[in-house]
Amino acid sequence: LEIIDLKKTYFGKAALFGKPKTVEAVKGVNFTVFEGETLGLVGESGCGKSTLGKTIMQIEEATAGQIKFRGRDITRLNKAERKQLRKEIQIVFQDPFASLNPRITIGEAIAEPLAVHHSYSAGKRKQEVLELLEAVGLDSTFYNRYPHQLSGGQRQRIGIARAIALKPKLLICDESVSALDISVQAQVLNLLNTLKEEYGFTYIFISHDLAVVKYMADQLVVMNSGLIEEIGDADEIYANPRKDYTKRLIEAIPKGIKKA
Ligand SMILES: Nc1ncnc2c1ncn2[C@@H]1O[C@H](COP(=O)(O)OP(=O)(O)O)[C@@H](O)[C@H]1O
Ligand SMILES: [Mg+2]
């Protein structure tokens, strides 16, 4: 994935007598993620991380610049091409509960992307869902359960199962463990690393929490107010931050975790 001078501006609606409110969320960003690599994206709340993730995913339209995925610019796709891209790039949000319909079972929820993109028979689809449940560490009894019967960690595993159902190449994880208790965070991070090895995923791992990002990332991008503050090898930046902004992110990590 190659990001070239990417900009995203939100153009708000004008108040009755006011000027339209525009927010330059991403102001010109460049980086490359190689296949099989994990790129960590860290920065304070509001610095533009989610906007960048959504723009790569084509949930938001880029204002300027290019997003090259496997050699092709994906910023100006038509509807059919965008549907095709969904098979290759997927996103895991903070709380999949928000996107899970309370009235449909876990099995049906995981089957949804398969139903949209593949013409599998019902039997084959169920088999696939059971395999996905197993891949995310949940047994077959979850198939007939409902979202409200699950813990936060289990719901996040369902979110991951849905995201990997189509075997994407690139997974964007946006604050995917931020809502979970520390011990559950570790379990989900380990699951993501296992899946990466198993399926050969490439990750963009987004969090405001540098401890979490550092645990996952090969390459690190530190973002500040829509721009890249620092970029490079994750361990190197962590050991030797050049910018005060990065130092502050490191200092914000609770003491017990910093050494790990
Ligand atoms: N849909 C939107 N419309 C207008 N402004 C937005 C929208 N989404 C995000 N923003 C603004 O863009 C900036 C970056 O937000 P975001 O990408 O969510 O940051 P982060 O994920 O790093 O917390 C913030 O100032 C935020 O208020
Ligand atoms: Mg965000």
Structure description:
It contains 10 helices and 10 strands. 37% of the residues are buried. α3 (106-117) packs across α4. The chain has a 6-stranded mixed sheet with strand order 6-7-8-3-9-10, with helices on both faces. Helices cover 38% and strands 26% of the residues. It is an alpha/beta fold. It has helices spanning 49-56, 79-86, 106-117, 122-135, 152-164, 182-199, 210-216, 234-239, 244-251, 255-258, and strands spanning 2-14, 20-32, 38-42, 64-69, 72-73, 89-92, 170-174, 202-207, 219-224, 227-233. It binds adenosine-5'-diphosphate and magnesium ion (MG). Magnesium ion binds next to α1.
Attribute tags:
260 residues; alpha/beta; 6-stranded mixed sheet; 26% strand; globular; binds adenosine-5'-diphosphate; binds magnesium ion
Low-pLDDT segments: none
Order of helices and strands: EEEHEEHEHHHEHEHEEHHH
Please, what is the CATH homologous superfamily of the domain at 1-87 and 218-260?
A: P-loop containing nucleotide triphosphate hydrolases
Give the termini distance in whole angstroms: 30 Å
What's the number of helices? 10
Task: Summarize this entry quickly.
This protein is α/β, with parallel strands linked by helices and 260 residues long. 38% of the residues lie in helices and 26% in strands.
